[in-house]
Design goal:
Length: about 375
């Protein structure tokens, strides 16, 4: 049996009082044809003007109900329905107008409106788009970019893994544009990615002194502390107290902290070698970011590998893997390694009491740091 449409003569009071349900639903306004209030399970409410075109419904998004009141929503819906009566298709015209922008404009909108708010590692993807795609497509209409354009851009990226990353970064921009009804097609879809093998690279004991001599302080801290490269880059002295570095799970605007990967607050004991490094960097400053003007760690590591003529390239993440291997090699076990690196594996990191293992974590961090320093001094 077909469900009867939910129709009411809406009032401002009714709009405010309507609560969410398990699934999104519409309430049609009986006073203005085509106008409907859409309520999401989250409680978000928005105005839609829905009309038929070629036998199919067309949804025109007017805006959020907390930003546009009922009387204005009715006026806007009235204008849309008048345009429909004149034979126009307002939603199609809106999509066409949005799609006329260049790829550079689309990529900038994607960062501003979506990725910078939703993706903690958005800067890495933004750099890939800016370096490999914007120079080629920046001035082209976003809607005109084809699969052949994508293949041509990827062919210019020599490293298979990097090519896959560029493809993923570009595809994310187009996928968002489709969701926002800016574009209709993602030219990155169905393009075959390069086959890659899982990386298990760590620095050998022989390599450690060579690399250490070339490392900047950020890379040295990455090796000594074993945290993620993005977390090391964003280190802030406001999060350091009593010998511990606390990594907030959620992003912080004031400190430009991106949040941890798993969204859980994590504490890291600062070993004596790490404290010495941080003291050398402070230059009398007790507050502020540790690395206010830091060059990309990936680029720095590539330069170091080139200088040392290392064919098997090393990435910043490989230093985290090297640290982790030392934790287990020194006999502390896999659970301890997961714990001190804030790595989720089988729920381990999500259930432990972050204070319960304080003494053990101190012991681990000091032992690994002492072992590494003995190797780099050899």
């Amino acid at each position: 049996m077909k469900q009867e449409a939910n129709k009411r003569q809406l009032t401002d009071l009714l709009v405010r009082k309507i609560g969410p349900r398990d699934k999104p639903f519409l309430i049609w306004d009986t006073k203005q044809r085509g106008l409907a209030l859409r309520v999401q399970p989250t409680g978000h409410k928005s105005w839609k003007c829905i009309y038929a075109r070629s036998g199919r419904p067309r949804w025109y998004s007017i805006g959020a109900a907390d930003a546009i009141d009922l009387s204005d929503a009715r006026k806007l819906a009235g204008r849309i329905m008048f345009a429909v009566a004149e034979g126009k298709d307002p939603q199609a015209e809106r999509i066409a107008a949005r799609g006329q922008g260049t790829f550079a404009e689309l990529a900038a909108r994607y960062v501003k409106e979506y990725s910078s708010k939703k993706n903690k590692s958005y800067k890495q993807a933004e750099r890939l788009v800016d370096k490999y795609l914007v120079p080629r497509w920046g001035k082209l209409p976003a809607a005109d970019i084809s699969r052949s354009d994508v293949k041509s851009a990827l062919a210019a990226v020599a490293a298979p893994v990097l090519s896959n990353q560029v493809l993923a970064a570009g595809s994310a921009v187009f996928s968002w544009a489709i969701r926002e009804e800016i574009l209709k097609v993602n030219p990155c879809q169905k393009i075959e990615r390069n086959e890659t093998t899982s990386r298990e690279r760590i620095l050998s004991d022989r390599e450690l002194p060579l690399f250490w001599a070339e490392f900047n302080p950020a890379l040295r801290l990455l090796l000594l502390l074993g945290q993620r490269p993005g977390e090391i880059s964003a280190m802030h002295r406001a999060h350091m107290e009593g010998g511990w570095w606390t990594l907030p799970g959620k992003p912080e605007a004031a400190t430009e902290w991106p949040g941890t990967k798993n969204g859980e607050t994590h504490r890291v004991w600062l070993s004596q070698p790490a404290v010495s490094l941080l003291g050398d960097l402070a230059m009398g400053e007790a507050t502020g970011p540790v690395f206010p003007q830091l060059r990309s760690l990936d680029a720095t590591m590539r330069d170091i590998c080139a200088k040392l003529k290392i064919n098997d390239k090393v990435t910043p993440h490989d230093l985290r893997r090297t640290f982790s291997s030392k934790v287990t090699a020194l006999g502390f076990g896999r659970d301890a390694m997961n714990r001190v690196t804030n790595h989720k594996e089988g729920g381990i990191a999500s259930v432990y009491d972050r204070y319960e293992y304080a003494d053990e974590n101190k012991k681990i961090m000091e032992a690994v740091a002492t072992h590494l320093m003995s190797l780099v001094a050899s």
